[in-house]
Amino acid sequence: MLDQKTIDIIKSTVPVLEKHGEKITTRFYQLMFGNHPELLNIFNHANQKQGRQQKALAGTVYAAAMYIDNLEAILPVVNQIAHKHRSLGIKPEHYPIVGKHLLLAIKDVLGDGATDEIIDAWAQAYGVIADAFISVESEMYEEAANQKGGWDGFRSFIVDRKVVESDVITSFYLKPVDNRGIAEFIPGQYISIKLEIESEHYTHIRQYSLSDAVGKDYYRISVKREAGTANPDGMVSNYLHDDVKEGDILNVSAPAGDFVLDTKKETPIVLLSGGVGLTPMMSMLKTVGEIQPERKVTFIHAAQNGNVHALREEVEELSALENITSFFFYDSPTEEDRLNNNFDVEGYVTGEWLKENVTTLDTDFYFCGPVPFMRAINRSLKDLGINEERIHFEFFGPKASIEA
């Protein structure tokens, strides 16, 4: 426990963190990777290059300072990050390294403003915060390893099938090499894939949402090809699309993630997705179709056009069920799309459309997609008066702000 003086010192740094947080976290990563380049085998290079990880960490540090006397208030954030850490293989021995370089970065950026008193207070606070993460992650590691079909770390899976779903999305069906059972997951969760690319010095780990129903003898991920191989995201997705073939072996973590469908509830749900954000929604949709045939589902997907719209046939097949209704939005439909009636609405998903076409009473809303899409959907739902506890969303990658 922290004494009141330490708590007061930490809280006094909140305005400074609000102003200089990203400078501190940017410097932190520079220092840590400079001294421990082996950690580049764990961290996402693309998020580093784009500044997303630095911004996300700055937000977490800021929240920790603000709620240092009530860390339970940020428990949802801790759980979300802990899921990611478990899927990446972050272990207790990594935390002292992070703490050392975070303090060095604070001192480096703030200069004389980082007094010994402030550094000492932050050292104590970091110890408490690290212990909280280590405790939560320890339980997650134990659960992942000890559950039926579970395992620790990464396990070898063979690419049993590789299916092109659209011009930009390809699905990979993964089965365990040892032919033993695999862990169940909750619809909406993801797995980590650890890749060793011949031209790369470091390994690359990426999280991909599971895109099929639970209870299969395989995991399915549906991966979007990112433009260009110069950036790390493009390099990894293009490698999967171009170089990974049926019969190849991939290293896979046990499923993780807290953006999940509550299958214990029977209230109506609306699943909204943009682009490749449809992958966790497909798992939710297919699971409800199989195990909750009475639960009303409205599935809404937004895409540029039919060329990039993946998994359409699966949604159309499920839409034949009495409890499932689907709508496709295309903002740039092709002539072929128009001739074949491939879409329901031209343009974007709007609050006005949702108000006219979706029953909002006692309905839970789940959405995922590009950040502008998610911010627009969130704003529309708030304008419709949907309570926050019925709004569920996930960012692909580090947590960002849902507010525009």
From TrEMBL:
<feature type="site" description="Influences the redox potential of the prosthetic heme and FAD groups">
    <location>
        <position position="84"/>
    </location>
</feature>
<dbReference type="Pfam" id="PF00970">
    <property type="entry name" value="FAD_binding_6"/>
</dbReference>
<dbReference type="InterPro" id="IPR000971">
    <property type="entry name" value="Globin"/>
</dbReference>
<dbReference type="InterPro" id="IPR017927">
    <property type="entry name" value="FAD-bd_FR_type"/>
</dbReference>
<dbReference type="InterPro" id="IPR023950">
    <property type="entry name" value="Hmp"/>
</dbReference>
<keyword id="KW-0479">Metal-binding</keyword>
<feature type="site" description="Involved in heme-bound ligand stabilization and O-O bond activation">
    <location>
        <position position="29"/>
    </location>
</feature>
<dbReference type="InterPro" id="IPR012292">
    <property type="entry name" value="Globin/Proto"/>
</dbReference>
<dbReference type="Pfam" id="PF00042">
    <property type="entry name" value="Globin"/>
</dbReference>
<comment type="function">
    <text>Is involved in NO detoxification in an aerobic process, termed nitric oxide dioxygenase (NOD) reaction that utilizes O(2) and NAD(P)H to convert NO to nitrate, which protects the bacterium from various noxious nitrogen compounds. Therefore, plays a central role in the inducible response to nitrosative stress.</text>
</comment>
<comment type="similarity">
    <text>Belongs to the globin family. Two-domain flavohemoproteins subfamily.</text>
</comment>
<keyword id="KW-0223">Dioxygenase</keyword>
<feature type="domain" description="Globin">
    <location>
        <begin position="1"/>
        <end position="138"/>
    </location>
</feature>
<dbReference type="GO" id="GO:0008941">
    <property type="term" value="F:nitric oxide dioxygenase NAD(P)H activity"/>
</dbReference>
<feature type="binding site" description="proximal binding residue">
    <location>
        <position position="85"/>
    </location>
    <ligand>
        <name>heme b</name>
    </ligand>
</feature>
<keyword id="KW-0813">Transport</keyword>
<keyword id="KW-0349">Heme</keyword>
<dbReference type="InterPro" id="IPR017938">
    <property type="entry name" value="Riboflavin_synthase-like_b-brl"/>
</dbReference>
<dbReference type="InterPro" id="IPR008333">
    <property type="entry name" value="Cbr1-like_FAD-bd_dom"/>
</dbReference>
<feature type="binding site">
    <location>
        <begin position="395"/>
        <end position="398"/>
    </location>
    <ligand>
        <name>FAD</name>
    </ligand>
</feature>
<feature type="binding site">
    <location>
        <begin position="275"/>
        <end position="280"/>
    </location>
    <ligand>
        <name>NADP(+)</name>
    </ligand>
</feature>
<feature type="binding site">
    <location>
        <begin position="206"/>
        <end position="209"/>
    </location>
    <ligand>
        <name>FAD</name>
    </ligand>
</feature>
<dbReference type="Pfam" id="PF00175">
    <property type="entry name" value="NAD_binding_1"/>
</dbReference>
<keyword id="KW-0521">NADP</keyword>
<keyword id="KW-0285">Flavoprotein</keyword>
<dbReference type="InterPro" id="IPR009050">
    <property type="entry name" value="Globin-like_sf"/>
</dbReference>
<keyword id="KW-0274">FAD</keyword>
<dbReference type="InterPro" id="IPR001433">
    <property type="entry name" value="OxRdtase_FAD/NAD-bd"/>
</dbReference>
<keyword id="KW-0408">Iron</keyword>
<keyword id="KW-0560">Oxidoreductase</keyword>
<keyword id="KW-0561">Oxygen transport</keyword>
<feature type="site" description="Influences the redox potential of the prosthetic heme and FAD groups">
    <location>
        <position position="394"/>
    </location>
</feature>
<protein>
    <recommendedName>
        <fullName>Flavohemoprotein</fullName>
        <ecNumber>1.14.12.17</ecNumber>
    </recommendedName>
</protein>
<feature type="domain" description="FAD-binding FR-type">
    <location>
        <begin position="152"/>
        <end position="262"/>
    </location>
</feature>
<comment type="similarity">
    <text>In the C-terminal section; belongs to the flavoprotein pyridine nucleotide cytochrome reductase family.</text>
</comment>
<feature type="active site" description="Charge relay system">
    <location>
        <position position="137"/>
    </location>
</feature>
<feature type="active site" description="Charge relay system">
    <location>
        <position position="95"/>
    </location>
</feature>
<feature type="binding site">
    <location>
        <position position="190"/>
    </location>
    <ligand>
        <name>FAD</name>
    </ligand>
</feature>
<keyword id="KW-0216">Detoxification</keyword>
<feature type="region of interest" description="Reductase">
    <location>
        <begin position="149"/>
        <end position="404"/>
    </location>
</feature>
<dbReference type="InterPro" id="IPR039261">
    <property type="entry name" value="FNR_nucleotide-bd"/>
</dbReference>
<keyword id="KW-0520">NAD</keyword>
